[in-house]
């Protein structure tokens, strides 16, 4: 069951995956520029109108999450496709719908000045104090709906394929192994376990998202239709938090697949690994409530659950994966290159990036810190130094196995430049949070400005490093199919 | 085949009997969640017979099932709007349209369901799952009376009806994805 299926047409599969990675990578780099502009504006270096700042904030958040999810979905599709039969047609539809969604969102934000931030929290889309109109809100909301539909199609296909191959999603998570019906040696591969988890949580998130988006659309068209704002917030975060969280669970597959190959050591699936992923499936679905810790009208038990499960969620997969990665690499004589280096670095980013989130998930801390820049400090480290680094790692991996494009000293420079810059950006956010600097504010008091300027300068280096990564990947795309490394078992077969 | 045609026709005849029709339409939840689905069932039953009689015609107009399912979705969405439900009670032309369009929707659903394959079926199912959840929320949460013909209380009852169906649909999804499907094959 766990053996890889012969890849039918590796080249054409790679083409689709590279399309998602190029689009994702370029959008991520472009969004970094908006991030820099916002930080310079907050630091008082440049003048950006308030309206433009919030448009930047909206596009930065939406673009980063959307682009990272798109590229991570490409990574997941690539590796899952080795074990189950996925539909290329569906992936093309997925790419097309995401593209249409992105275009609508961009038009909504920049042509119609829509600026509710990517959380589009009800009733903000309809009540903008004339900052934007109905058209902008509808373009954004429909754009998100179409984008979500694209992702839903993809996950329906992954779910279908996993069920077809393994019998059920439970078996995809290895429950039959845990219940003793199957030997642990016959457990599904790590890529399948992770993909099953992501399929479950993201289908749930997208259904919740579709409901709340349509509800917002109804409210924008006819404001006399009102809804319970608390339920709307729950659904919004059940969508947004889970969807954003799942990015790293898709991207981490590259670490699982890549490190054992480089270290020439097996990274076997164990019962502990399966338990950890099942626990993470449940926790990821439930911990969005840590976004509600300041909402006094929420049931108390949900808030306690938000805190307790947020603590717990850090442990299973993260510890199993980070510890597993260390064990695979330790004294293995691994040959470090860009792909393996980035994969390993992402473990660091994921581990340390989760800590500020766990701190913020503590109710008493949350009341003070949640609306400060402490939270962007968490997710910039977690995503920027964790998930996105995994995506870059995959880009280098693909270039290595499918082309003769060589890594240069410039790439190594980019590696360290990216790591230090991303660390600097995250730390300036955390420091700002510690200084009680509010987040999502266009204007800062002088006392808050220094970290923002520092972050913006670091951001410039980040863009330079990211551009080098993307250029390397584009060089691969140009030379695709030329002789690559023997790490690629399908090509060798 | 003929049996399903007779059953479908019989249900249709029962549904158009004035006292039954008026009784069903007097309660919002029965109007929306009993009468409307039954009209779709009528189309499904009759469809089986007609489909067998004119297979080539259906191959021509609904070859892969996509056009049929899109029309089905459009018709059902139209009838899920509170306003259309209201209009059906106010304007006879809407009422007639309801008794024609919904059997047609059922008829197209029957023809399209097997053609759109598992992937399409899951997509449509999940689409309706979120739509029913949303409709439940809309009817439950709306502080205003949405239909002229139904009171706020009736609206809320319908809302709970939708939530109940959504819950059943979620349970069905859970049992389908977490029970072993390979043993059935």
UniProtKB/TrEMBL annotation, chain A:
Q: Is Electron transport given among the entry's keywords?
A: yes
Give GO cellular component annotations, separated by semicolons: membrane
Example GO molecular function: cytochrome-c oxidase activity
Q: State whether keyword Endoplasmic reticulum applies.
A: no
> Which segments cross the bilayer?
21-41, 53-79, 91-112, 132-156, 191-218, 238-256, 268-288, 308-329, 341-359, 379-401, 413-431, 451-474
The record's section on Pfam families has: COX1
Where the record annotates domain Cytochrome oxidase subunit I profile, the positions are 21-493
| Any Gene Ontology biological process | aerobic respiration
Q: Which UniProt keywords apply?
A: Electron transport, Membrane, Respiratory chain, Transmembrane, Transmembrane helix, Transport
Q: What is the protein name given in its UniProt record?
A: Cytochrome oxidase subunit I profile domain-containing protein
Native source organism of the sequence: Ornithinibacillus halotolerans
Q: What is the lineage of its organism?
A: Bacteria, Bacillati, Bacillota, Bacilli, Bacillales
From TrEMBL, chain B:
Alphabetical UniProt keywords:
Membrane, Transmembrane, Transmembrane helix
Q: Where are the transmembrane segments?
A: 5-23, 29-50, 57-79, 91-110, 122-140, 160-178
Q: What is the protein name given in its UniProt record?
A: DUF1404 domain-containing protein
Q: Where is the signal peptide?
A: none
Origin superkingdom: Bacteria
> Is the keyword Nucleotidyltransferase in the record?
no
